[in-house]
Specification:
The complex is a heterodimer of chains A (231) and B (225).
Chain A lengths: L6 E5 L4 H12 L5 E4 L7 H6 L8 E4 L5 E2 L1 H11 L11 H18 L1 H8 L3 H26 L12 H7 L2 H11 L10 H11 L11 H14 L6
Helix pairs in contact in A: 1-3, 4-7, 5-6
Chain B lengths: L5 E5 L4 H13 L4 E4 L7 H6 L8 E4 L2 E4 L1 H11 L10 H24 L5 H20 L15 H6 L2 H12 L10 H12 L1 H4 L5 H20 L1
Parallel strand pairs in B: 1-2
Antiparallel strand pairs in B: 1-3, 3-4
The chains are: A alpha+beta (231), B alpha+beta (225).
Chain lengths: 231, 225
Protein backbone atom coordinates (compact mmCIF):
# COMPACT_ATOMS: atom_id res chain seq x y z
CA UNK A 1 0.00 0.00 0.00
CA UNK A 2 1.54 3.29 -1.03
CA UNK A 3 1.19 6.38 1.09
CA UNK A 4 -0.57 9.25 -0.65
CA UNK A 5 2.20 11.78 -0.96
CA UNK A 6 2.07 15.56 -0.99
CA UNK A 7 4.56 15.60 -3.85
CA UNK A 8 4.08 14.07 -7.26
CA UNK A 9 6.80 13.75 -9.86
CA UNK A 10 5.95 13.15 -13.50
CA UNK A 11 8.87 11.59 -15.26
CA UNK A 12 10.29 9.01 -17.53
CA UNK A 13 12.86 6.56 -16.23
CA UNK A 14 15.29 7.16 -19.10
CA UNK A 15 15.49 10.91 -18.54
CA UNK A 16 18.60 12.19 -16.73
CA UNK A 17 16.68 15.37 -15.94
CA UNK A 18 14.06 13.34 -14.09
CA UNK A 19 16.74 11.20 -12.42
CA UNK A 20 18.42 14.25 -10.95
CA UNK A 21 15.17 15.41 -9.33
CA UNK A 22 14.73 11.92 -7.86
CA UNK A 23 18.32 12.05 -6.62
CA UNK A 24 17.58 15.29 -4.76
CA UNK A 25 14.24 14.05 -3.38
CA UNK A 26 16.04 10.97 -2.03
CA UNK A 27 18.96 12.95 -0.59
CA UNK A 28 16.52 15.21 1.24
CA UNK A 29 14.32 12.29 2.37
CA UNK A 30 11.27 13.84 0.73
CA UNK A 31 8.52 11.34 0.04
CA UNK A 32 6.98 11.50 -3.38
CA UNK A 33 4.70 9.68 -5.74
CA UNK A 34 6.35 8.91 -9.05
CA UNK A 35 4.26 8.80 -12.21
CA UNK A 36 5.92 7.28 -15.27
CA UNK A 37 5.12 9.01 -18.54
CA UNK A 38 5.27 7.44 -21.97
CA UNK A 39 6.70 10.27 -24.03
CA UNK A 40 5.26 8.88 -27.24
CA UNK A 41 1.78 9.08 -25.71
CA UNK A 42 1.77 11.92 -23.21
CA UNK A 43 -0.84 11.76 -20.50
CA UNK A 44 -3.54 14.36 -19.97
CA UNK A 45 -1.93 15.23 -16.64
CA UNK A 46 1.43 15.99 -18.27
CA UNK A 47 -0.07 18.04 -21.09
CA UNK A 48 -2.09 20.17 -18.67
CA UNK A 49 0.74 20.44 -16.13
CA UNK A 50 3.34 21.56 -18.57
CA UNK A 51 1.45 23.03 -21.50
CA UNK A 52 4.42 25.24 -22.29
CA UNK A 53 7.04 22.58 -22.86
CA UNK A 54 5.11 19.30 -22.59
CA UNK A 55 8.26 17.85 -21.02
CA UNK A 56 9.28 15.95 -17.95
CA UNK A 57 10.18 16.35 -15.15
CA UNK A 58 7.16 18.12 -13.69
CA UNK A 59 6.81 18.48 -9.92
CA UNK A 60 3.39 18.97 -8.38
CA UNK A 61 3.42 19.99 -4.72
CA UNK A 62 0.07 19.64 -2.93
CA UNK A 63 -2.49 21.76 -4.75
CA UNK A 64 -0.05 24.33 -6.12
CA UNK A 65 0.38 24.74 -9.87
CA UNK A 66 3.12 22.51 -11.32
CA UNK A 67 6.82 23.39 -11.43
CA UNK A 68 8.85 22.53 -14.51
CA UNK A 69 12.54 22.46 -15.51
CA UNK A 70 14.84 20.22 -13.49
CA UNK A 71 17.25 22.90 -12.24
CA UNK A 72 14.37 25.10 -11.13
CA UNK A 73 12.74 22.13 -9.37
CA UNK A 74 16.01 21.34 -7.58
CA UNK A 75 16.35 24.91 -6.28
CA UNK A 76 12.71 24.80 -5.18
CA UNK A 77 13.28 21.59 -3.21
CA UNK A 78 16.41 23.07 -1.67
CA UNK A 79 14.41 26.10 -0.56
CA UNK A 80 11.47 24.20 0.95
CA UNK A 81 13.67 21.82 2.94
CA UNK A 82 16.96 23.65 3.42
CA UNK A 83 17.98 21.84 6.60
CA UNK A 84 18.23 18.35 5.17
CA UNK A 85 21.18 17.74 2.82
CA UNK A 86 21.71 21.20 1.43
CA UNK A 87 22.24 20.92 -2.35
CA UNK A 88 23.53 24.39 -3.29
CA UNK A 89 26.11 26.03 -1.01
CA UNK A 90 25.06 29.13 0.92
CA UNK A 91 27.79 31.49 -0.32
CA UNK A 92 26.52 33.65 -3.25
CA UNK A 93 29.76 33.36 -5.25
CA UNK A 94 29.85 29.57 -4.90
CA UNK A 95 26.19 29.42 -5.89
CA UNK A 96 26.91 31.52 -8.99
CA UNK A 97 29.83 29.23 -9.93
CA UNK A 98 27.68 26.14 -9.47
CA UNK A 99 24.87 27.58 -11.58
CA UNK A 100 27.31 28.63 -14.31
CA UNK A 101 28.67 25.10 -14.63
CA UNK A 102 25.21 23.55 -14.52
CA UNK A 103 24.29 25.75 -17.49
CA UNK A 104 27.44 24.65 -19.32
CA UNK A 105 26.64 20.98 -18.70
CA UNK A 106 23.01 21.31 -19.79
CA UNK A 107 23.39 23.77 -22.67
CA UNK A 108 26.81 22.93 -24.13
CA UNK A 109 28.03 19.52 -22.99
CA UNK A 110 25.07 17.15 -22.86
CA UNK A 111 23.47 18.37 -26.14
CA UNK A 112 26.56 16.94 -27.85
CA UNK A 113 25.29 13.44 -27.02
CA UNK A 114 22.15 14.05 -29.06
CA UNK A 115 24.24 15.70 -31.79
CA UNK A 116 26.26 12.50 -31.92
CA UNK A 117 23.09 10.50 -32.50
CA UNK A 118 21.67 12.67 -35.28
CA UNK A 119 24.93 13.45 -37.09
CA UNK A 120 25.51 11.08 -40.02
CA UNK A 121 28.89 9.85 -41.20
CA UNK A 122 32.19 9.11 -39.53
CA UNK A 123 33.71 12.56 -40.08
CA UNK A 124 30.77 14.30 -38.49
CA UNK A 125 30.71 11.98 -35.52
CA UNK A 126 34.47 12.31 -35.00
CA UNK A 127 34.11 16.07 -34.79
CA UNK A 128 31.46 15.68 -32.08
CA UNK A 129 33.63 13.16 -30.21
CA UNK A 130 36.39 15.76 -30.20
CA UNK A 131 33.97 18.30 -28.73
CA UNK A 132 32.87 15.88 -26.02
CA UNK A 133 36.47 15.06 -25.14
CA UNK A 134 37.35 18.77 -24.89
CA UNK A 135 34.31 19.21 -22.66
CA UNK A 136 35.41 16.34 -20.43
CA UNK A 137 38.73 18.10 -19.82
CA UNK A 138 36.89 21.27 -18.78
CA UNK A 139 34.74 19.19 -16.44
CA UNK A 140 37.82 17.54 -14.92
CA UNK A 141 39.25 21.00 -14.20
CA UNK A 142 35.93 22.05 -12.73
CA UNK A 143 35.93 18.96 -10.53
CA UNK A 144 39.39 19.79 -9.21
CA UNK A 145 38.29 23.35 -8.45
CA UNK A 146 35.00 22.48 -6.76
CA UNK A 147 36.03 19.35 -4.86
CA UNK A 148 39.16 20.92 -3.28
CA UNK A 149 40.72 17.51 -2.94
CA UNK A 150 37.58 15.87 -1.58
CA UNK A 151 35.35 13.14 -2.97
CA UNK A 152 32.57 15.05 -4.73
CA UNK A 153 31.98 18.35 -6.53
CA UNK A 154 30.11 19.23 -3.35
CA UNK A 155 33.08 18.30 -1.14
CA UNK A 156 32.63 15.57 1.43
CA UNK A 157 29.17 14.77 0.22
CA UNK A 158 27.05 15.07 -2.89
CA UNK A 159 26.25 18.61 -4.00
CA UNK A 160 24.58 20.43 -6.86
CA UNK A 161 27.02 19.58 -9.64
CA UNK A 162 27.23 15.95 -8.52
CA UNK A 163 23.47 15.78 -9.04
CA UNK A 164 23.53 17.75 -12.31
CA UNK A 165 26.36 15.83 -13.99
CA UNK A 166 25.95 12.55 -12.13
CA UNK A 167 22.67 11.68 -13.77
CA UNK A 168 24.25 11.72 -17.23
CA UNK A 169 26.47 8.75 -16.38
CA UNK A 170 24.12 6.07 -17.73
CA UNK A 171 23.81 7.85 -21.10
CA UNK A 172 27.57 8.47 -21.06
CA UNK A 173 28.28 4.77 -20.79
CA UNK A 174 25.72 4.17 -23.53
CA UNK A 175 27.31 6.51 -26.07
CA UNK A 176 30.79 5.30 -25.14
CA UNK A 177 29.78 1.78 -26.05
CA UNK A 178 27.87 2.81 -29.18
CA UNK A 179 30.65 4.99 -30.52
CA UNK A 180 33.74 3.19 -29.30
CA UNK A 181 35.36 5.98 -27.36
CA UNK A 182 35.75 7.11 -23.78
CA UNK A 183 34.11 10.27 -22.49
CA UNK A 184 35.85 9.91 -19.13
CA UNK A 185 39.25 8.29 -19.30
CA UNK A 186 41.85 7.27 -16.68
CA UNK A 187 44.61 9.32 -18.32
CA UNK A 188 42.68 12.42 -19.40
CA UNK A 189 40.12 12.69 -16.58
CA UNK A 190 41.34 10.45 -13.73
CA UNK A 191 39.39 12.16 -10.97
CA UNK A 192 36.11 12.03 -12.87
CA UNK A 193 36.63 8.31 -13.53
CA UNK A 194 36.84 7.78 -9.75
CA UNK A 195 33.90 10.09 -9.21
CA UNK A 196 31.73 8.18 -11.71
CA UNK A 197 32.25 4.97 -9.70
CA UNK A 198 31.21 6.73 -6.49
CA UNK A 199 28.06 8.31 -7.91
CA UNK A 200 27.04 5.12 -9.69
CA UNK A 201 26.90 3.33 -6.33
CA UNK A 202 25.52 6.17 -4.19
CA UNK A 203 22.49 4.96 -2.27
CA UNK A 204 20.35 7.98 -3.15
CA UNK A 205 20.62 7.41 -6.88
CA UNK A 206 21.66 3.83 -7.66
CA UNK A 207 18.07 2.59 -7.76
CA UNK A 208 17.02 5.47 -9.96
CA UNK A 209 19.64 5.12 -12.69
CA UNK A 210 18.11 3.37 -15.70
CA UNK A 211 19.48 0.06 -16.89
CA UNK A 212 20.85 -0.47 -20.38
CA UNK A 213 17.66 -2.03 -21.69
CA UNK A 214 15.67 1.07 -20.78
CA UNK A 215 18.19 3.25 -22.58
CA UNK A 216 18.17 1.04 -25.65
CA UNK A 217 14.36 1.27 -25.84
CA UNK A 218 14.45 5.02 -25.40
CA UNK A 219 17.17 5.32 -28.04
CA UNK A 220 15.07 3.32 -30.49
CA UNK A 221 12.14 5.64 -29.84
CA UNK A 222 14.33 8.67 -30.55
CA UNK A 223 15.64 7.06 -33.75
CA UNK A 224 12.05 6.59 -34.85
CA UNK A 225 10.49 9.92 -33.87
CA UNK A 226 13.57 12.09 -34.41
CA UNK A 227 15.57 10.26 -37.04
CA UNK A 228 19.20 11.13 -37.72
CA UNK A 229 19.94 13.71 -40.41
CA UNK A 230 20.48 12.52 -43.94
CA UNK A 231 24.06 12.46 -45.18
CA UNK B 1 28.85 47.70 1.56
CA UNK B 2 31.88 49.91 2.13
CA UNK B 3 35.07 48.93 0.40
CA UNK B 4 33.27 46.85 -2.23
CA UNK B 5 34.75 47.02 -5.68
CA UNK B 6 32.20 46.25 -8.37
CA UNK B 7 32.95 46.32 -12.06
CA UNK B 8 30.64 45.44 -14.95
CA UNK B 9 32.14 44.49 -18.29
CA UNK B 10 29.46 45.17 -20.86
CA UNK B 11 28.52 46.27 -24.33
CA UNK B 12 26.23 49.27 -24.77
CA UNK B 13 24.07 47.40 -27.30
CA UNK B 14 23.61 44.19 -25.27
CA UNK B 15 20.24 43.50 -23.64
CA UNK B 16 21.95 41.07 -21.26
CA UNK B 17 24.38 43.66 -19.96
CA UNK B 18 21.48 46.11 -19.71
CA UNK B 19 19.45 43.91 -17.42
CA UNK B 20 22.43 43.43 -15.12
CA UNK B 21 22.76 47.23 -14.92
CA UNK B 22 19.06 47.43 -14.04
CA UNK B 23 19.64 44.99 -11.16
CA UNK B 24 22.64 46.93 -9.87
CA UNK B 25 20.82 50.26 -10.03
CA UNK B 26 17.66 48.99 -8.36
CA UNK B 27 19.86 47.80 -5.50
CA UNK B 28 21.76 51.07 -5.36
CA UNK B 29 25.09 49.30 -5.87
CA UNK B 30 27.93 51.53 -7.01
CA UNK B 31 29.81 50.07 -9.92
CA UNK B 32 32.36 50.89 -12.56
CA UNK B 33 31.10 50.23 -16.07
CA UNK B 34 33.70 49.04 -18.58
CA UNK B 35 32.71 49.19 -22.25
CA UNK B 36 34.01 46.24 -24.28
CA UNK B 37 34.76 46.43 -27.97
CA UNK B 38 33.40 43.05 -29.04
CA UNK B 39 35.48 43.07 -32.23
CA UNK B 40 38.60 43.53 -30.13
CA UNK B 41 38.02 41.92 -26.76
CA UNK B 42 40.13 43.12 -23.86
CA UNK B 43 42.65 40.87 -22.11
CA UNK B 44 40.59 41.46 -18.98
CA UNK B 45 37.45 39.97 -20.56
CA UNK B 46 39.36 37.02 -21.96
CA UNK B 47 40.93 36.39 -18.56
CA UNK B 48 37.64 36.61 -16.64
CA UNK B 49 35.50 34.65 -19.10
CA UNK B 50 37.84 32.30 -20.96
CA UNK B 51 35.13 29.76 -21.76
CA UNK B 52 32.65 31.99 -23.57
CA UNK B 53 34.56 35.29 -23.95
CA UNK B 54 31.24 37.12 -23.64
CA UNK B 55 29.72 40.05 -21.81
CA UNK B 56 28.28 40.77 -19.35
CA UNK B 57 30.79 39.84 -16.68
CA UNK B 58 30.40 41.18 -13.17
CA UNK B 59 33.63 41.45 -11.23
CA UNK B 60 33.11 41.75 -7.48
CA UNK B 61 36.26 42.30 -5.43
CA UNK B 62 38.27 40.66 -8.20
CA UNK B 63 36.02 37.60 -8.60
CA UNK B 64 34.19 37.22 -11.93
CA UNK B 65 30.57 36.10 -12.31
CA UNK B 66 29.18 35.27 -15.76
CA UNK B 67 25.79 34.78 -17.45
CA UNK B 68 23.33 37.57 -16.91
CA UNK B 69 20.61 35.65 -15.03
CA UNK B 70 23.24 34.00 -12.81
CA UNK B 71 24.71 37.48 -12.20
CA UNK B 72 21.30 38.92 -11.27
CA UNK B 73 20.69 36.16 -8.73
CA UNK B 74 24.19 36.75 -7.36
CA UNK B 75 23.41 40.46 -7.00
CA UNK B 76 20.14 39.63 -5.23
CA UNK B 77 21.86 37.27 -2.81
CA UNK B 78 24.84 39.51 -2.08
CA UNK B 79 23.04 42.83 -1.59
CA UNK B 80 20.03 41.85 0.45
CA UNK B 81 18.25 45.22 0.43
CA UNK B 82 15.30 45.65 -1.93
CA UNK B 83 14.85 41.97 -2.90
CA UNK B 84 14.42 41.18 -6.60
CA UNK B 85 13.18 37.61 -6.34
CA UNK B 86 10.04 36.95 -4.29
CA UNK B 87 10.40 35.32 -0.87
CA UNK B 88 8.06 32.39 -1.44
CA UNK B 89 9.87 29.38 -3.00
CA UNK B 90 7.00 28.63 -5.36
CA UNK B 91 6.88 32.20 -6.68
CA UNK B 92 10.67 32.15 -7.05
CA UNK B 93 10.40 28.99 -9.14
CA UNK B 94 7.75 30.65 -11.31
CA UNK B 95 9.86 33.78 -11.89
CA UNK B 96 12.89 31.68 -12.79
CA UNK B 97 10.82 29.54 -15.13
CA UNK B 98 9.52 32.47 -17.18
CA UNK B 99 12.91 34.18 -17.34
CA UNK B 100 14.48 30.93 -18.60
CA UNK B 101 11.58 30.39 -20.98
CA UNK B 102 12.22 33.73 -22.67
CA UNK B 103 15.97 33.17 -22.93
CA UNK B 104 15.60 29.60 -24.23
CA UNK B 105 12.73 30.20 -26.66
CA UNK B 106 12.74 33.83 -27.79
CA UNK B 107 16.45 34.56 -28.14
CA UNK B 108 17.25 31.76 -30.64
CA UNK B 109 14.30 32.92 -32.76
CA UNK B 110 15.72 36.42 -33.00
CA UNK B 111 18.91 34.93 -34.39
CA UNK B 112 16.90 32.83 -36.85
CA UNK B 113 15.08 35.93 -38.06
CA UNK B 114 18.05 36.74 -40.20
CA UNK B 115 16.86 33.87 -42.40
CA UNK B 116 17.16 34.38 -46.11
CA UNK B 117 13.65 34.26 -47.53
CA UNK B 118 10.56 36.32 -46.75
CA UNK B 119 8.57 33.17 -45.98
CA UNK B 120 11.18 31.92 -43.55
CA UNK B 121 11.25 35.29 -41.82
CA UNK B 122 7.46 35.29 -41.53
CA UNK B 123 7.47 31.75 -40.20
CA UNK B 124 10.03 32.56 -37.52
CA UNK B 125 8.12 35.73 -36.61
CA UNK B 126 4.99 33.61 -36.17
CA UNK B 127 6.88 31.29 -33.77
CA UNK B 128 8.19 34.32 -31.90
CA UNK B 129 4.68 35.73 -31.54
CA UNK B 130 3.54 32.38 -30.12
CA UNK B 131 6.29 32.58 -27.51
CA UNK B 132 5.20 36.10 -26.60
CA UNK B 133 1.57 35.01 -26.39
CA UNK B 134 2.56 32.26 -23.96
CA UNK B 135 4.39 34.87 -21.89
CA UNK B 136 1.26 37.04 -22.04
CA UNK B 137 -0.72 34.18 -20.50
CA UNK B 138 1.47 34.33 -17.38
CA UNK B 139 0.61 37.96 -16.67
CA UNK B 140 -1.97 39.11 -14.18
CA UNK B 141 -4.26 41.84 -15.37
CA UNK B 142 -4.36 43.57 -12.01
CA UNK B 143 -0.66 43.88 -11.31
CA UNK B 144 1.47 46.54 -13.03
CA UNK B 145 4.66 44.56 -12.63
CA UNK B 146 5.14 40.83 -12.56
CA UNK B 147 5.91 40.83 -8.88
CA UNK B 148 3.09 43.18 -7.98
CA UNK B 149 3.56 46.86 -7.18
CA UNK B 150 7.34 46.96 -7.31
CA UNK B 151 9.78 45.82 -9.95
CA UNK B 152 11.32 42.41 -9.48
CA UNK B 153 13.50 39.76 -11.08
CA UNK B 154 11.05 38.79 -13.77
CA UNK B 155 10.41 42.37 -14.87
CA UNK B 156 14.10 43.17 -15.31
CA UNK B 157 14.87 39.76 -16.83
CA UNK B 158 12.35 40.19 -19.63
CA UNK B 159 11.68 43.89 -20.22
CA UNK B 160 14.47 44.13 -22.83
CA UNK B 161 11.96 42.64 -25.25
CA UNK B 162 9.99 45.87 -24.98
CA UNK B 163 12.99 47.63 -26.54
CA UNK B 164 14.37 45.01 -28.90
CA UNK B 165 11.10 43.73 -30.38
CA UNK B 166 9.94 47.11 -31.77
CA UNK B 167 13.43 47.65 -33.14
CA UNK B 168 13.48 44.26 -34.91
CA UNK B 169 10.01 44.96 -36.29
CA UNK B 170 11.41 48.04 -38.04
CA UNK B 171 14.58 46.38 -39.32
CA UNK B 172 13.12 43.10 -40.57
CA UNK B 173 9.57 44.28 -41.38
CA UNK B 174 7.75 41.77 -39.23
CA UNK B 175 5.20 41.99 -36.43
CA UNK B 176 6.14 40.78 -32.95
CA UNK B 177 4.47 42.73 -30.16
CA UNK B 178 0.94 42.72 -31.46
CA UNK B 179 -0.99 45.26 -29.35
CA UNK B 180 -4.29 43.58 -30.16
CA UNK B 181 -3.29 40.03 -29.21
CA UNK B 182 -0.84 40.85 -26.44
CA UNK B 183 -2.33 43.82 -24.62
CA UNK B 184 -0.99 42.85 -21.18
CA UNK B 185 2.53 42.36 -22.51
CA UNK B 186 2.55 45.73 -24.22
CA UNK B 187 1.26 47.51 -21.09
CA UNK B 188 3.70 45.62 -18.90
CA UNK B 189 6.76 46.55 -20.96
CA UNK B 190 5.64 50.17 -21.19
CA UNK B 191 5.22 50.38 -17.42
CA UNK B 192 8.57 48.76 -16.66
CA UNK B 193 10.50 50.89 -19.14
CA UNK B 194 8.95 54.08 -17.71
CA UNK B 195 10.48 53.53 -14.26
CA UNK B 196 13.20 56.16 -13.89
CA UNK B 197 16.02 53.88 -12.80
CA UNK B 198 15.30 51.61 -15.77
CA UNK B 199 14.73 54.39 -18.27
CA UNK B 200 17.96 56.25 -17.53
CA UNK B 201 20.23 53.44 -18.66
CA UNK B 202 18.41 52.45 -21.84
CA UNK B 203 20.78 53.22 -24.73
CA UNK B 204 19.66 55.88 -27.25
CA UNK B 205 17.10 54.09 -29.43
CA UNK B 206 18.23 55.66 -32.72
CA UNK B 207 21.81 54.57 -32.05
CA UNK B 208 20.60 51.06 -31.17
CA UNK B 209 18.48 50.86 -34.32
CA UNK B 210 21.36 52.05 -36.52
CA UNK B 211 23.73 49.55 -34.94
CA UNK B 212 21.46 46.53 -35.37
CA UNK B 213 20.32 47.59 -38.84
CA UNK B 214 23.93 47.83 -39.92
CA UNK B 215 24.69 44.44 -38.40
CA UNK B 216 21.63 42.91 -40.10
CA UNK B 217 22.40 44.46 -43.50
CA UNK B 218 25.99 43.24 -43.42
CA UNK B 219 24.86 39.77 -42.35
CA UNK B 220 22.24 39.59 -45.14
CA UNK B 221 24.84 40.77 -47.66
CA UNK B 222 27.12 37.84 -46.79
CA UNK B 223 24.23 35.45 -47.24
CA UNK B 224 23.43 36.57 -50.75
CA UNK B 225 27.01 36.15 -51.93
Amino acid sequence: MTKKSEIKLLGTVASPFVNRVQFVLNLKSIEYEYIEENLAYKSELLLTSNPVHKKVPVLIHANKPPICESLIIIEYLDEIKPDVHRILPSDPLERADNRFWANYIDNKFFPLYEEMRVTPGKEGKDAIKKGIIEGSVLLEEAFIKFSRGKTYFGGDDVGYLDVVLGCFIAWTKFIEKNNEFKVFDEVRTPRLVEWVKRIWSHEAVKDVIPGNEVLVNFYMMLQKYRPPRAV
Amino acid sequence: MAGDKVKLLGFWGSPFALRVEWALRLKGVEYEYVEEDLSNKSPMLLQYNPLYKKVPVLVHNGKPIMESLVIIEYIDETWKNRPLLPIDPFERATSRFWAKFVDDKFVPLIIKMSSSTREQKDKVAEEAREVLKTLESSLNQNKPFYGGKILGFMDIAVAWIGIWAPMLEKIIDIKLLDEEYMPLLNTWFRDVLEVLVIKECIPPLDKLLAHYKDYYDRFMATKSN
